[in-house]
From TrEMBL:
One of its GO terms (cellular component) is membrane. It comes from Chenopodium quinoa (Quinoa). Residues 45-158 form the DOMON domain. This is DOMON domain-containing protein. It is found in: Membrane. Pfam families: DUF568. Its main location: membrane.
């Protein structure tokens, strides 16, 4: 009896420490009863993508969340024409001068992009941003997306926003490894 109880306690502690040392997207609960069936722990920048893919409509409802201070900005996007940063059709979020979270779309056309608001090469609706638990979260409905279910994606974070314009991000380590490929049919 005593041994069994000890084993149980050890197992409970082991699983708790796993949860606290490695946060995974699967354990995350959104506010407002939003529910996403699929998610991915992105490898750098403490970033997570949650999504529902609708194969009939070829649309993806996404929530991208990443660790950030209220002064910084985050961005996530699909690159339909290449890999890495240039060409990315980005969703961007930051806290504006009035203190409200703001989300918009911008095309990353060079390594020194304007970051100005503009439409993307595919439809985007239901765009919103929030700040919760030291994370910025961007939500949106993307599509119809006509090129299958596997896309090159890129994401980024920067420390500063000036006059409501996100400023250049650092250029080392995780900030230059923040791109990859994602199949929206994967779990
Ligand atoms: C997927 O999209 C179709 C067409 O717009 C819609 O009828 C259907 O309800 C959607 N499915 C889900 C699960 O949202
Ligand atoms: C699909 O491919 C076309 C042509 O390359 C491109 O313009 C468009 O942005 C792509 N859409 C997506 C969602 O990747």
């Amino acid at each position: 009896m005593a041994i069994k109880r000890t084993i149980l306690i050890v197992c409970t502690i082991a699983s708790l420490s796993l949860v606290s040392s490695a946060q995974t997207c699967k354990n995350y609960k959104f506010s407002n009863q939003r529910d996403f069936q699929s998610c991915a722990d992105l490898p750098v920048l403490e970033a997570y993508l949650h999504w529902n893919y609708n194969s009939t409509a070829e649309t993806i409802h996404i929530a991208y969340r990443a660790s950030q201070t209220p002064r910084g900005w985050i961005a996530w996007g699909i690159n339909p024409t290449g890999s890495g940063m240039v060409g990315t059709q980005a969703l961007v979020a930051f806290q504006d001068l009035k203190g409200n979270m703001k989300a918009y779309t911008s095309q990353i056309k060079s390594y020194n992009p304007s970051m100005k608001p503009e439409p993307l090469s595919f439809p985007v609706s239901e765009l919103s941003a929030e700040y919760s638990n030291d994370e910025m979260i961007i939500s949106a409905l993307l599509g119809p997306l006509s090129n299958g279910t596997t896309f090159n994606i890129a994401w980024q974070a920067g420390n500063a926003v000036s006059n409501d314009i996100p400023q250049s991000h650092p250029h080392f380590g995780p900030y230059v490894r923040s791109s990859g490929t994602l199949n929206f049919l994967s779990v």
